[in-house]
């Protein structure tokens, strides 16, 4: 088994959700230092903590618990303490040769549910399934982290093959809030000429990319905005003075149905989803409060604005219909993005030189969101170029399924691709 695969399995075994990736961060820093990296930023030196807001819990109690768990699971105590319980790692490698500033993003967080012990599950049969309850790498971020470390190894071992300054961004919290923005707000992308992100198990021509395939750029990013909404009603007995009650649970259910009935926009992709509803006290009391968590996504700014207007029309109209009020918390928007065509072509040329890539698509499908778009937009707004690459790999289940696994043979070719991009095409 090669070292990159070993990295992947280690991070899979010790999966950590967004803003809890303390062991992951400490181990990444330890591996980078062992390879010879000198300029390593960890924790609050890698991410801007002021960017992170509710509902993220970065209390001292939570951070201390994450640090204790990280040490108990084999992370270096000195490096764990250096994180102060904050995740994220940035390695800055100056090759010593004139050239551009390049940055590559590798997300490190997992998803918040248990791994599935299905028939034939390789993670269970080969003993690298997640040991942390409610934590599973079901979106390939363990593979992304391993690819980043494999690339770091090659750059550090062969500095004369590379040019310029290379920044490796091991980003927390892609699956939740503020991960990419916290690194952007720290200033690491202000001077970047070229930005690259990779993701395993995407699609092209609306079909999953198998092993050996690659999508050289992604352009169908959707912006995403998430809201926590609470309807405030009035409790009452459903048989005595029911007219005095204001049923917040019915309001939330009605709003959920109406939100899912928002008409799609003719200009591009639209998505609305109510993912959680929580409310009520008991069977014989009219629910005085009920909360729901929702998101809406649009391919272009005008679609996002259309969805925003319709969402708040529905929330306000529902509140008025049921005679109650509502409040909300807005976690901000992750924007849409597009890959620059010049870098898409560079990816195509590099992939054509690697025998493992036997099916090359110029454009692939994400059909969703990734906060790498925050980094892409920032670099492009500062005059740089950006690309988001889809790596093909045979999978056991779709991403975000607890039984997800991928063909580990994709890892080394992915490192080779990024290495070629940095050496010959940027």
UniProtKB/TrEMBL annotation:
Cofactor remark: The Mn(2+) ion enhances activity.
Keyword terms of this UniProt record: Manganese, Metal-binding
Short name of one Pfam family: M20_dimer
Positions of the Peptidase M20 dimerisation domain: 227-317
Cell inner membrane found in the keyword field: no
Positions bound to Mn(2+): 139, 141, 175, 199, 400
Cofactors, names only: Mn(2+)
GO molecular function: dipeptidase activity; metal ion binding; para-aminobenzoyl-glutamate hydrolase activity
GO cellular component: cytoplasm
One BP term from GO: folic acid catabolic process
UniProt-recorded name of the protein: Amidohydrolase
Organism: Candidatus Fimisoma avicola
